[in-house]
UniProtKB/TrEMBL annotation:
Keywords: FAD, Flavoprotein, NAD, Nucleotide-binding, Oxidoreductase. NAD(+) binds at residues 179-186, 269. Residues 7-326 form the FAD/NAD(P)-binding domain. The keyword Nucleotide-binding applies. FAD binds at residues 52, 142-144, 311. Its EC number is 1.8.1.4. This is Dihydrolipoyl dehydrogenase. The keyword NAD applies. SUPFAM superfamilies: FAD/NAD(P)-binding domain, FAD/NAD-linked reductases, dimerisation (C-terminal) domain. It comes from the Bacteria. PANTHER family: MERCURIC REDUCTASE, PYRIDINE NUCLEOTIDE-DISULFIDE OXIDOREDUCTASE RCLA-RELATED.
Length: 485
Protein backbone atom coordinates (compact mmCIF):
# COMPACT_ATOMS: atom_id res chain seq x y z
CA UNK A 1 0.00 0.00 0.00
CA UNK A 2 1.45 3.36 -1.01
CA UNK A 3 1.39 5.94 1.82
CA UNK A 4 1.24 9.68 1.12
CA UNK A 5 1.18 12.68 3.45
CA UNK A 6 -0.22 15.89 2.05
CA UNK A 7 -1.45 19.31 3.15
CA UNK A 8 -4.69 19.14 1.15
CA UNK A 9 -6.46 16.24 -0.56
CA UNK A 10 -9.30 17.09 -2.95
CA UNK A 11 -11.70 14.20 -3.64
CA UNK A 12 -13.14 14.56 -7.16
CA UNK A 13 -11.64 16.07 -10.33
CA UNK A 14 -14.78 17.71 -11.73
CA UNK A 15 -15.52 21.43 -11.91
CA UNK A 16 -15.54 21.94 -8.13
CA UNK A 17 -12.53 19.65 -7.58
CA UNK A 18 -10.37 21.32 -10.23
CA UNK A 19 -11.29 24.72 -8.88
CA UNK A 20 -10.52 23.60 -5.31
CA UNK A 21 -7.20 22.04 -6.32
CA UNK A 22 -6.06 25.23 -8.08
CA UNK A 23 -7.12 27.44 -5.17
CA UNK A 24 -5.45 25.22 -2.54
CA UNK A 25 -2.21 25.21 -4.56
CA UNK A 26 -1.99 28.98 -4.08
CA UNK A 27 -1.38 28.43 -0.38
CA UNK A 28 -0.17 24.88 0.29
CA UNK A 29 2.87 22.95 -0.94
CA UNK A 30 1.50 19.45 -1.21
CA UNK A 31 -1.97 19.20 -2.75
CA UNK A 32 -3.41 16.12 -4.44
CA UNK A 33 -6.59 15.60 -6.46
CA UNK A 34 -8.15 12.14 -6.37
CA UNK A 35 -10.44 11.16 -9.27
CA UNK A 36 -12.21 7.83 -9.51
CA UNK A 37 -13.93 8.17 -12.87
CA UNK A 38 -13.01 9.76 -16.18
CA UNK A 39 -11.68 13.32 -16.20
CA UNK A 40 -13.53 15.91 -18.26
CA UNK A 41 -16.23 17.06 -15.77
CA UNK A 42 -19.91 16.18 -15.68
CA UNK A 43 -20.75 19.56 -17.23
CA UNK A 44 -18.68 19.00 -20.37
CA UNK A 45 -19.07 15.23 -20.72
CA UNK A 46 -22.71 14.50 -19.89
CA UNK A 47 -24.28 17.72 -18.57
CA UNK A 48 -24.51 21.36 -19.58
CA UNK A 49 -22.70 21.18 -22.90
CA UNK A 50 -24.08 18.08 -24.68
CA UNK A 51 -27.60 18.96 -23.50
CA UNK A 52 -27.30 22.44 -24.99
CA UNK A 53 -25.93 20.95 -28.22
CA UNK A 54 -28.96 18.67 -28.54
CA UNK A 55 -31.24 21.64 -27.79
CA UNK A 56 -29.50 23.73 -30.48
CA UNK A 57 -30.29 21.06 -33.09
CA UNK A 58 -33.90 20.96 -31.88
CA UNK A 59 -34.17 24.75 -32.15
CA UNK A 60 -32.88 24.62 -35.73
CA UNK A 61 -35.59 22.21 -36.84
CA UNK A 62 -38.26 24.05 -34.85
CA UNK A 63 -37.44 27.34 -36.57
CA UNK A 64 -37.41 25.66 -39.97
CA UNK A 65 -40.88 24.26 -39.29
CA UNK A 66 -42.37 27.55 -38.10
CA UNK A 67 -41.62 30.06 -40.83
CA UNK A 68 -45.10 30.12 -42.35
CA UNK A 69 -46.71 32.76 -40.05
CA UNK A 70 -44.06 35.19 -41.32
CA UNK A 71 -45.19 34.50 -44.90
CA UNK A 72 -42.11 32.43 -45.56
CA UNK A 73 -42.52 28.89 -46.83
CA UNK A 74 -39.64 26.43 -46.79
CA UNK A 75 -40.03 24.14 -49.79
CA UNK A 76 -39.73 20.38 -49.46
CA UNK A 77 -39.50 18.12 -46.44
CA UNK A 78 -37.60 19.13 -43.36
CA UNK A 79 -35.59 16.04 -42.55
CA UNK A 80 -33.88 15.32 -39.25
CA UNK A 81 -30.94 12.99 -39.71
CA UNK A 82 -30.50 11.52 -36.26
CA UNK A 83 -27.03 10.18 -36.99
CA UNK A 84 -25.76 13.60 -38.06
CA UNK A 85 -27.47 15.29 -35.11
CA UNK A 86 -25.73 12.94 -32.68
CA UNK A 87 -22.42 13.19 -34.58
CA UNK A 88 -22.37 16.96 -34.03
CA UNK A 89 -23.45 16.62 -30.40
CA UNK A 90 -20.59 14.19 -29.74
CA UNK A 91 -18.01 16.00 -31.85
CA UNK A 92 -18.59 19.36 -30.15
CA UNK A 93 -18.96 17.70 -26.74
CA UNK A 94 -15.56 16.01 -27.23
CA UNK A 95 -14.06 19.39 -28.13
CA UNK A 96 -15.30 20.89 -24.87
CA UNK A 97 -14.06 17.86 -22.93
CA UNK A 98 -10.72 18.23 -24.73
CA UNK A 99 -10.24 21.73 -23.30
CA UNK A 100 -10.86 20.41 -19.79
CA UNK A 101 -8.44 17.52 -20.37
CA UNK A 102 -5.74 19.98 -21.52
CA UNK A 103 -6.12 21.70 -18.16
CA UNK A 104 -5.92 18.38 -16.31
CA UNK A 105 -2.81 17.39 -18.31
CA UNK A 106 -1.09 20.57 -17.15
CA UNK A 107 -1.38 19.40 -13.51
CA UNK A 108 1.80 17.60 -12.36
CA UNK A 109 1.37 13.80 -12.42
CA UNK A 110 2.38 13.55 -8.74
CA UNK A 111 -0.62 15.68 -7.78
CA UNK A 112 -3.15 13.34 -9.42
CA UNK A 113 -4.27 10.04 -7.96
CA UNK A 114 -6.57 7.75 -9.90
CA UNK A 115 -9.13 5.83 -7.87
CA UNK A 116 -12.16 6.17 -5.59
CA UNK A 117 -11.45 7.63 -2.17
CA UNK A 118 -13.20 6.89 1.10
CA UNK A 119 -12.52 7.94 4.66
CA UNK A 120 -10.86 5.33 6.89
CA UNK A 121 -10.03 7.90 9.57
CA UNK A 122 -10.56 11.58 10.29
CA UNK A 123 -7.49 12.50 8.23
CA UNK A 124 -6.97 9.31 6.21
CA UNK A 125 -8.37 8.42 2.82
CA UNK A 126 -8.16 4.98 1.24
CA UNK A 127 -7.94 5.21 -2.56
CA UNK A 128 -9.16 1.95 -4.16
CA UNK A 129 -6.81 -0.66 -2.70
CA UNK A 130 -3.53 0.95 -3.70
CA UNK A 131 -2.93 4.20 -1.77
CA UNK A 132 -3.53 5.71 1.64
CA UNK A 133 -3.50 9.49 1.75
CA UNK A 134 -2.98 11.24 5.09
CA UNK A 135 -4.22 14.80 4.65
CA UNK A 136 -4.18 17.76 7.01
CA UNK A 137 -7.26 19.12 5.20
CA UNK A 138 -9.72 17.48 2.81
CA UNK A 139 -12.16 18.89 0.22
CA UNK A 140 -15.09 16.68 -0.77
CA UNK A 141 -16.02 17.55 -4.39
CA UNK A 142 -17.55 14.28 -5.53
CA UNK A 143 -20.51 15.64 -7.53
CA UNK A 144 -23.90 13.95 -7.87
CA UNK A 145 -25.53 11.15 -9.79
CA UNK A 146 -29.06 10.44 -11.08
CA UNK A 147 -31.48 9.09 -8.50
CA UNK A 148 -34.43 6.95 -9.60
CA UNK A 149 -36.60 4.21 -8.09
CA UNK A 150 -34.55 1.00 -7.76
CA UNK A 151 -37.41 -1.03 -9.24
CA UNK A 152 -36.71 0.49 -12.63
CA UNK A 153 -33.43 -1.42 -12.82
CA UNK A 154 -35.45 -4.40 -14.05
CA UNK A 155 -35.85 -2.52 -17.36
CA UNK A 156 -32.19 -3.39 -18.03
CA UNK A 157 -30.67 -1.66 -21.02
CA UNK A 158 -34.00 0.05 -21.83
CA UNK A 159 -33.51 2.31 -18.80
CA UNK A 160 -31.27 5.29 -19.53
CA UNK A 161 -29.90 8.33 -17.72
CA UNK A 162 -28.67 11.57 -19.28
CA UNK A 163 -25.14 10.15 -19.73
CA UNK A 164 -26.47 7.43 -22.07
CA UNK A 165 -28.48 9.83 -24.23
CA UNK A 166 -25.34 11.72 -25.24
CA UNK A 167 -23.72 8.48 -26.38
CA UNK A 168 -26.48 7.61 -28.84
CA UNK A 169 -25.34 7.11 -32.43
CA UNK A 170 -28.84 7.81 -33.72
CA UNK A 171 -32.13 9.10 -32.35
CA UNK A 172 -34.61 6.44 -31.21
CA UNK A 173 -38.27 6.36 -32.26
CA UNK A 174 -39.89 6.70 -28.87
CA UNK A 175 -38.90 7.60 -25.33
CA UNK A 176 -40.75 8.03 -22.04
CA UNK A 177 -39.03 10.62 -19.88
CA UNK A 178 -39.75 10.45 -16.16
CA UNK A 179 -39.31 13.74 -14.31
CA UNK A 180 -40.37 17.07 -15.85
CA UNK A 181 -37.67 18.87 -13.87
CA UNK A 182 -34.75 20.69 -15.44
CA UNK A 183 -33.19 17.73 -17.24
CA UNK A 184 -36.50 16.16 -18.26
CA UNK A 185 -37.85 19.37 -19.81
CA UNK A 186 -34.64 20.18 -21.65
CA UNK A 187 -34.06 16.69 -23.04
CA UNK A 188 -37.73 15.81 -23.49
CA UNK A 189 -38.59 18.90 -25.53
CA UNK A 190 -35.39 18.64 -27.60
CA UNK A 191 -36.09 14.99 -28.45
CA UNK A 192 -39.70 15.83 -29.33
CA UNK A 193 -38.62 18.60 -31.71
CA UNK A 194 -36.11 16.25 -33.30
CA UNK A 195 -38.91 13.84 -34.13
CA UNK A 196 -38.69 11.38 -31.23
CA UNK A 197 -42.13 10.35 -30.00
CA UNK A 198 -41.95 11.37 -26.34
CA UNK A 199 -44.15 11.16 -23.25
CA UNK A 200 -43.08 13.12 -20.16
CA UNK A 201 -44.33 11.88 -16.79
CA UNK A 202 -44.11 13.77 -13.49
CA UNK A 203 -45.41 13.50 -9.95
CA UNK A 204 -47.42 15.99 -7.93
CA UNK A 205 -47.73 18.54 -10.75
CA UNK A 206 -44.20 19.92 -10.38
CA UNK A 207 -42.87 21.37 -13.64
CA UNK A 208 -39.29 22.66 -13.86
CA UNK A 209 -37.73 24.13 -10.73
CA UNK A 210 -40.52 26.73 -10.36
CA UNK A 211 -42.22 27.45 -7.04
CA UNK A 212 -44.65 30.21 -8.13
CA UNK A 213 -47.97 28.45 -8.81
CA UNK A 214 -49.02 30.93 -11.53
CA UNK A 215 -45.77 30.62 -13.45
CA UNK A 216 -45.77 26.84 -12.99
CA UNK A 217 -49.36 26.55 -14.28
CA UNK A 218 -48.37 28.59 -17.34
CA UNK A 219 -45.35 26.35 -17.93
CA UNK A 220 -47.41 23.19 -17.54
CA UNK A 221 -50.02 24.39 -20.02
CA UNK A 222 -47.44 25.61 -22.55
CA UNK A 223 -45.40 22.41 -22.64
CA UNK A 224 -48.48 20.15 -22.51
CA UNK A 225 -49.77 21.92 -25.63
CA UNK A 226 -46.58 20.95 -27.45
CA UNK A 227 -46.07 17.31 -26.37
CA UNK A 228 -47.68 14.78 -24.02
CA UNK A 229 -46.79 16.03 -20.53
CA UNK A 230 -48.52 14.45 -17.54
CA UNK A 231 -47.14 16.51 -14.65
CA UNK A 232 -49.19 14.52 -12.14
CA UNK A 233 -49.10 11.16 -13.82
CA UNK A 234 -50.85 8.16 -12.41
CA UNK A 235 -48.59 5.46 -13.75
CA UNK A 236 -49.92 1.99 -13.03
CA UNK A 237 -47.13 -0.17 -14.40
CA UNK A 238 -43.82 0.01 -16.19
CA UNK A 239 -42.53 -3.28 -17.56
CA UNK A 240 -40.13 -4.53 -20.14
CA UNK A 241 -41.68 -6.09 -23.19
CA UNK A 242 -39.04 -7.55 -25.50
CA UNK A 243 -36.90 -4.68 -26.71
CA UNK A 244 -39.43 -2.12 -25.53
CA UNK A 245 -40.99 -0.85 -22.34
CA UNK A 246 -44.72 -0.96 -21.78
CA UNK A 247 -46.19 1.81 -19.64
CA UNK A 248 -49.77 1.86 -18.43
CA UNK A 249 -51.19 5.06 -16.96
CA UNK A 250 -54.44 6.87 -16.30
CA UNK A 251 -54.91 9.94 -18.45
CA UNK A 252 -56.60 13.21 -17.45
CA UNK A 253 -60.00 11.70 -18.28
CA UNK A 254 -59.29 8.76 -15.98
CA UNK A 255 -58.98 6.44 -18.94
CA UNK A 256 -56.32 3.76 -19.01
CA UNK A 257 -53.68 4.28 -21.68
CA UNK A 258 -50.89 1.91 -22.63
CA UNK A 259 -47.86 3.00 -24.60
CA UNK A 260 -44.75 1.16 -25.77
CA UNK A 261 -41.48 3.00 -25.98
CA UNK A 262 -37.91 2.16 -26.97
CA UNK A 263 -36.42 3.68 -23.82
CA UNK A 264 -37.27 5.12 -20.43
CA UNK A 265 -35.08 8.09 -19.48
CA UNK A 266 -34.89 8.66 -15.73
CA UNK A 267 -34.65 12.39 -14.98
CA UNK A 268 -36.12 12.16 -11.51
CA UNK A 269 -33.49 14.17 -9.67
CA UNK A 270 -29.87 13.75 -8.59
CA UNK A 271 -28.27 12.78 -5.30
CA UNK A 272 -24.93 13.98 -3.96
CA UNK A 273 -22.14 11.38 -4.14
CA UNK A 274 -21.43 11.27 -0.42
CA UNK A 275 -23.06 7.98 0.54
CA UNK A 276 -20.01 5.81 -0.27
CA UNK A 277 -17.38 8.03 1.33
CA UNK A 278 -17.37 6.33 4.74
CA UNK A 279 -18.68 9.51 6.40
CA UNK A 280 -20.28 7.34 9.07
CA UNK A 281 -16.75 6.84 10.43
CA UNK A 282 -16.51 10.56 11.20
CA UNK A 283 -18.39 12.61 13.76
CA UNK A 284 -19.44 15.08 11.06
CA UNK A 285 -22.83 16.83 11.06
CA UNK A 286 -25.00 15.67 8.16
CA UNK A 287 -28.26 17.09 6.74
CA UNK A 288 -31.36 15.01 6.04
CA UNK A 289 -29.85 13.79 2.75
CA UNK A 290 -26.70 12.61 4.53
CA UNK A 291 -24.66 15.54 3.18
CA UNK A 292 -22.11 17.31 5.40
CA UNK A 293 -23.56 20.63 6.54
CA UNK A 294 -21.26 23.47 5.44
CA UNK A 295 -21.01 27.20 6.04
CA UNK A 296 -21.87 28.64 2.59
CA UNK A 297 -19.29 31.42 3.01
CA UNK A 298 -16.32 29.18 3.84
CA UNK A 299 -17.60 25.73 2.75
CA UNK A 300 -16.18 24.39 6.01
CA UNK A 301 -18.11 21.50 7.56
CA UNK A 302 -18.62 20.82 11.26
CA UNK A 303 -15.14 19.19 11.23
CA UNK A 304 -12.75 22.07 10.82
CA UNK A 305 -10.37 20.22 8.47
CA UNK A 306 -13.09 19.05 6.05
CA UNK A 307 -14.65 21.22 3.32
CA UNK A 308 -17.26 20.40 0.70
CA UNK A 309 -17.99 21.90 -2.73
CA UNK A 310 -20.12 21.55 -5.86
CA UNK A 311 -23.08 19.19 -6.27
CA UNK A 312 -21.74 17.18 -3.32
CA UNK A 313 -22.61 20.10 -1.02
CA UNK A 314 -26.34 19.87 -1.81
CA UNK A 315 -26.51 23.66 -1.94
CA UNK A 316 -27.15 24.79 -5.54
CA UNK A 317 -26.28 22.05 -8.06
CA UNK A 318 -25.23 24.36 -10.89
CA UNK A 319 -22.01 24.78 -12.80
CA UNK A 320 -21.09 28.31 -11.75
CA UNK A 321 -21.88 27.40 -8.15
CA UNK A 322 -19.58 24.35 -8.35
CA UNK A 323 -16.74 26.57 -9.59
CA UNK A 324 -17.37 29.21 -6.89
CA UNK A 325 -17.76 26.71 -4.07
CA UNK A 326 -14.65 24.81 -5.22
CA UNK A 327 -12.62 28.02 -5.18
CA UNK A 328 -13.87 28.94 -1.70
CA UNK A 329 -13.33 25.43 -0.28
CA UNK A 330 -9.87 25.04 -1.86
CA UNK A 331 -8.78 28.51 -0.80
CA UNK A 332 -9.80 27.87 2.80
CA UNK A 333 -8.40 24.32 2.88
CA UNK A 334 -5.12 25.79 1.64
CA UNK A 335 -4.99 28.76 4.03
CA UNK A 336 -6.52 27.04 7.15
CA UNK A 337 -6.72 27.88 10.01
CA UNK A 338 -7.00 31.48 8.69
CA UNK A 339 -10.28 31.10 6.82
CA UNK A 340 -11.80 33.86 4.72
CA UNK A 341 -15.38 34.28 3.59
CA UNK A 342 -15.73 33.74 -0.15
CA UNK A 343 -18.04 35.53 -2.55
CA UNK A 344 -21.47 33.93 -2.88
CA UNK A 345 -23.44 35.46 -5.69
CA UNK A 346 -27.16 36.03 -6.00
CA UNK A 347 -28.97 32.86 -7.01
CA UNK A 348 -29.74 32.50 -10.72
CA UNK A 349 -30.92 29.44 -12.64
CA UNK A 350 -32.04 28.96 -16.22
CA UNK A 351 -33.79 26.06 -17.94
CA UNK A 352 -32.98 26.00 -21.64
CA UNK A 353 -36.43 24.93 -22.72
CA UNK A 354 -38.50 26.97 -25.18
CA UNK A 355 -39.83 29.18 -23.73
CA UNK A 356 -36.98 29.31 -21.26
CA UNK A 357 -37.61 29.20 -17.51
CA UNK A 358 -35.54 31.29 -15.11
CA UNK A 359 -35.41 32.05 -11.41
CA UNK A 360 -33.50 34.76 -9.57
CA UNK A 361 -32.89 35.54 -5.91
CA UNK A 362 -35.36 34.24 -3.38
CA UNK A 363 -37.93 31.77 -4.71
CA UNK A 364 -41.61 32.64 -4.46
CA UNK A 365 -42.01 29.81 -1.92
CA UNK A 366 -39.29 31.26 0.34
CA UNK A 367 -40.51 34.84 -0.14
CA UNK A 368 -44.00 33.76 0.91
CA UNK A 369 -42.60 31.98 3.95
CA UNK A 370 -40.56 35.01 5.00
CA UNK A 371 -42.88 37.88 4.14
CA UNK A 372 -46.24 36.44 3.17
CA UNK A 373 -47.50 35.73 6.66
CA UNK A 374 -47.41 39.45 7.55
CA UNK A 375 -48.52 40.71 4.15
CA UNK A 376 -45.18 42.31 3.37
CA UNK A 377 -44.66 40.62 0.02
CA UNK A 378 -45.67 42.63 -3.02
CA UNK A 379 -45.59 41.18 -6.50
CA UNK A 380 -45.77 42.49 -10.03
CA UNK A 381 -46.25 40.59 -13.25
CA UNK A 382 -46.30 40.79 -16.99
CA UNK A 383 -47.61 38.51 -19.69
CA UNK A 384 -45.49 38.27 -22.81
CA UNK A 385 -48.50 37.38 -24.96
CA UNK A 386 -49.04 40.99 -26.06
CA UNK A 387 -45.57 42.30 -25.37
CA UNK A 388 -44.39 44.28 -28.42
CA UNK A 389 -41.04 42.80 -29.37
CA UNK A 390 -42.03 39.27 -28.31
CA UNK A 391 -45.03 39.48 -30.64
CA UNK A 392 -42.92 40.84 -33.51
CA UNK A 393 -40.75 37.74 -33.25
CA UNK A 394 -43.67 35.39 -32.57
CA UNK A 395 -42.06 34.54 -29.25
CA UNK A 396 -45.03 35.92 -27.35
CA UNK A 397 -45.50 33.16 -24.83
CA UNK A 398 -44.76 33.46 -21.17
CA UNK A 399 -45.10 35.40 -17.95
CA UNK A 400 -42.76 37.00 -15.44
CA UNK A 401 -43.42 37.65 -11.77
CA UNK A 402 -41.20 39.85 -9.61
CA UNK A 403 -41.21 39.95 -5.81
CA UNK A 404 -40.39 42.88 -3.55
CA UNK A 405 -40.50 43.86 0.09
CA UNK A 406 -43.29 46.25 1.08
CA UNK A 407 -41.98 49.47 2.60
CA UNK A 408 -38.36 49.23 1.45
CA UNK A 409 -39.21 48.31 -2.15
CA UNK A 410 -36.22 45.96 -2.13
CA UNK A 411 -36.23 43.58 -5.11
CA UNK A 412 -36.02 40.09 -3.63
CA UNK A 413 -36.66 37.62 -6.45
CA UNK A 414 -38.36 36.63 -9.68
CA UNK A 415 -39.64 33.57 -11.50
CA UNK A 416 -40.45 33.48 -15.19
CA UNK A 417 -41.12 31.52 -18.31
CA UNK A 418 -40.73 33.43 -21.52
CA UNK A 419 -38.60 34.74 -24.35
CA UNK A 420 -34.97 35.64 -23.63
CA UNK A 421 -35.42 34.57 -20.00
CA UNK A 422 -31.69 33.76 -19.76
CA UNK A 423 -30.87 37.43 -20.45
CA UNK A 424 -33.62 38.92 -18.33
CA UNK A 425 -32.52 36.67 -15.47
CA UNK A 426 -29.02 38.13 -15.67
CA UNK A 427 -30.29 41.71 -15.47
CA UNK A 428 -32.39 40.73 -12.49
CA UNK A 429 -29.60 38.78 -10.78
CA UNK A 430 -27.24 41.74 -11.13
CA UNK A 431 -29.90 44.05 -9.69
CA UNK A 432 -30.49 41.57 -6.86
CA UNK A 433 -26.81 41.33 -5.98
CA UNK A 434 -26.59 45.13 -5.99
CA UNK A 435 -29.54 45.11 -3.55
CA UNK A 436 -31.48 47.46 -5.77
CA UNK A 437 -34.99 48.63 -5.02
CA UNK A 438 -37.80 48.52 -7.56
CA UNK A 439 -37.70 52.35 -8.06
CA UNK A 440 -33.91 52.16 -8.62
CA UNK A 441 -34.41 49.42 -11.20
CA UNK A 442 -37.01 51.56 -12.96
CA UNK A 443 -34.45 54.36 -13.16
CA UNK A 444 -32.29 52.15 -15.40
CA UNK A 445 -32.48 52.57 -19.21
CA UNK A 446 -34.81 50.41 -21.30
CA UNK A 447 -34.40 50.46 -25.08
CA UNK A 448 -37.28 50.21 -27.52
CA UNK A 449 -38.51 47.83 -28.83
CA UNK A 450 -37.01 45.09 -26.64
CA UNK A 451 -38.28 42.18 -24.57
CA UNK A 452 -36.93 43.92 -21.47
CA UNK A 453 -39.76 46.43 -21.82
CA UNK A 454 -41.90 43.55 -20.53
CA UNK A 455 -39.73 43.45 -17.43
CA UNK A 456 -40.34 47.17 -16.99
CA UNK A 457 -44.09 46.56 -17.09
CA UNK A 458 -43.75 44.00 -14.26
CA UNK A 459 -41.57 46.41 -12.25
CA UNK A 460 -44.13 49.21 -12.74
CA UNK A 461 -46.85 46.82 -11.59
CA UNK A 462 -45.05 46.14 -8.32
CA UNK A 463 -44.06 49.81 -7.95
CA UNK A 464 -47.76 50.76 -8.05
CA UNK A 465 -48.30 48.61 -4.94
CA UNK A 466 -45.31 50.00 -3.07
CA UNK A 467 -46.02 52.12 -0.03
CA UNK A 468 -42.73 53.61 1.13
CA UNK A 469 -44.29 54.89 4.38
CA UNK A 470 -45.25 51.36 5.34
CA UNK A 471 -42.90 49.83 7.91
CA UNK A 472 -44.53 46.42 7.84
CA UNK A 473 -41.22 44.68 7.12
CA UNK A 474 -39.77 46.14 10.28
CA UNK A 475 -42.77 44.88 12.21
CA UNK A 476 -42.75 41.60 10.34
CA UNK A 477 -39.16 40.70 11.12
CA UNK A 478 -39.73 41.27 14.80
CA UNK A 479 -43.11 39.56 14.79
CA UNK A 480 -42.83 36.61 17.18
CA UNK A 481 -46.29 35.22 16.38
CA UNK A 482 -45.46 34.68 12.75
CA UNK A 483 -42.24 32.93 13.77
CA UNK A 484 -39.97 35.44 12.05
CA UNK A 485 -38.03 36.79 15.00
C1 LIG B 1 -27.88 16.79 -18.11
C2 LIG B 1 -27.34 17.91 -17.25
C3 LIG B 1 -27.38 19.20 -17.72
C4 LIG B 1 -26.89 20.25 -16.93
N1 LIG B 1 -26.95 21.51 -17.44
C5 LIG B 1 -26.50 22.53 -16.69
C6 LIG B 1 -26.53 23.85 -17.19
O1 LIG B 1 -26.97 24.10 -18.32
N2 LIG B 1 -26.08 24.85 -16.40
C7 LIG B 1 -25.60 24.61 -15.15
O2 LIG B 1 -25.22 25.57 -14.46
N3 LIG B 1 -25.54 23.36 -14.65
C8 LIG B 1 -25.98 22.32 -15.39
N4 LIG B 1 -25.90 21.06 -14.90
C9 LIG B 1 -25.35 20.86 -13.55
C10 LIG B 1 -23.80 20.87 -13.57
O3 LIG B 1 -23.37 19.99 -14.58
C11 LIG B 1 -23.28 20.43 -12.21
O4 LIG B 1 -23.80 21.30 -11.22
C12 LIG B 1 -21.76 20.47 -12.14
O5 LIG B 1 -21.20 19.76 -13.21
C13 LIG B 1 -21.27 19.86 -10.82
O6 LIG B 1 -19.87 19.85 -10.76
P1 LIG B 1 -19.12 19.04 -9.62
O7 LIG B 1 -17.68 19.37 -9.69
O8 LIG B 1 -19.80 19.19 -8.33
O9 LIG B 1 -19.33 17.51 -10.03
P2 LIG B 1 -18.61 16.64 -11.19
O10 LIG B 1 -18.18 17.43 -12.34
O11 LIG B 1 -19.54 15.50 -11.41
O12 LIG B 1 -17.30 16.11 -10.48
C14 LIG B 1 -17.32 15.16 -9.45
C15 LIG B 1 -16.18 14.17 -9.70
O13 LIG B 1 -15.97 13.41 -8.53
C16 LIG B 1 -15.61 12.08 -8.90
N5 LIG B 1 -15.85 11.22 -7.74
C17 LIG B 1 -17.05 10.90 -7.19
N6 LIG B 1 -16.85 10.14 -6.08
C18 LIG B 1 -15.51 10.01 -5.93
C19 LIG B 1 -14.69 9.36 -4.98
N7 LIG B 1 -15.19 8.71 -3.93
N8 LIG B 1 -13.34 9.40 -5.15
C20 LIG B 1 -12.81 10.07 -6.21
N9 LIG B 1 -13.53 10.70 -7.14
C21 LIG B 1 -14.86 10.68 -6.99
C22 LIG B 1 -16.50 11.81 -10.10
O14 LIG B 1 -15.95 10.78 -10.90
C23 LIG B 1 -16.50 13.16 -10.80
O15 LIG B 1 -15.51 13.26 -11.80
C24 LIG B 1 -26.35 19.98 -15.66
C25 LIG B 1 -26.29 18.67 -15.18
C26 LIG B 1 -26.78 17.64 -15.97
C27 LIG B 1 -26.69 16.23 -15.46
N1 LIG C 1 -30.12 24.38 -17.27
C1 LIG C 1 -29.55 24.01 -16.14
O1 LIG C 1 -28.99 24.81 -15.40
C2 LIG C 1 -29.57 22.58 -15.73
C3 LIG C 1 -29.90 21.59 -16.65
C4 LIG C 1 -29.96 20.29 -16.22
C5 LIG C 1 -29.67 19.97 -14.90
N2 LIG C 1 -29.35 20.94 -14.04
C6 LIG C 1 -29.10 20.61 -12.61
O2 LIG C 1 -29.29 19.24 -12.37
C7 LIG C 1 -30.18 19.08 -11.29
C8 LIG C 1 -30.94 17.79 -11.43
O3 LIG C 1 -31.87 17.87 -12.50
P1 LIG C 1 -33.12 16.91 -12.56
O4 LIG C 1 -33.97 17.37 -13.67
O5 LIG C 1 -32.67 15.49 -12.52
O6 LIG C 1 -33.81 17.14 -11.15
P2 LIG C 1 -35.03 18.08 -10.72
O7 LIG C 1 -35.08 18.00 -9.27
O8 LIG C 1 -34.97 19.39 -11.40
O9 LIG C 1 -36.32 17.35 -11.33
C9 LIG C 1 -36.73 16.07 -10.96
C10 LIG C 1 -38.20 15.93 -11.31
O10 LIG C 1 -38.55 14.57 -11.24
C11 LIG C 1 -39.82 14.46 -10.63
N3 LIG C 1 -39.92 13.10 -10.12
C12 LIG C 1 -39.36 12.56 -9.02
N4 LIG C 1 -39.67 11.25 -8.92
C13 LIG C 1 -40.44 10.94 -9.99
C14 LIG C 1 -41.08 9.76 -10.46
N5 LIG C 1 -40.96 8.61 -9.80
N6 LIG C 1 -41.79 9.83 -11.60
C15 LIG C 1 -41.90 10.98 -12.29
N7 LIG C 1 -41.32 12.13 -11.90
C16 LIG C 1 -40.60 12.12 -10.77
C17 LIG C 1 -39.81 15.56 -9.57
O11 LIG C 1 -41.10 15.91 -9.16
C18 LIG C 1 -39.12 16.68 -10.34
O12 LIG C 1 -40.06 17.40 -11.11
C19 LIG C 1 -31.05 20.31 -11.31
O13 LIG C 1 -31.55 20.61 -10.03
C20 LIG C 1 -30.12 21.37 -11.79
O14 LIG C 1 -29.50 21.98 -10.70
C21 LIG C 1 -29.30 22.25 -14.42
Amino acid sequence: MKQLSVDVAVIGGGTAGLSAYRAAKEHANRVVMIEGGPYGTTCARVGCMPSKLLIAAAEAVHHARHTSPFGVDVEGDIKVEGKRVMERVKFERDRFVGFVLEGVDSIPADDKIQGYARFVGDHTLQVDDHTQVHAARIVIATGSRPAYPGLWDKLGDRLLINDDVFDWDDLPNSVAVFGPGVIGLELGQAMHRLGVNIHLFGVGGQVGPLTDPDVMAYANKTFAEEFPLMADARVESIKRDGDQVEITYLDDNNETQTIRVDYVVAATGRRPNVDKLGLEKLSIELDDRGVPVADPLTMQTSLEHIFVAGDASNQLPLLHEAADQGRIAGDNAGRAPNLENGLRRSAISVVFSDPQIAMVGMTYRDAQKRLGSCDCLITGEVSFENQGRSRVMLKNKGMLRVYAEQGTGLFIGAEMIGPAAEHMAHLLAWAHQQQMTIPQMLDMPFYHPVIEEGLRTALRDVAAKLDTDNNCVLECVTCQECGIA
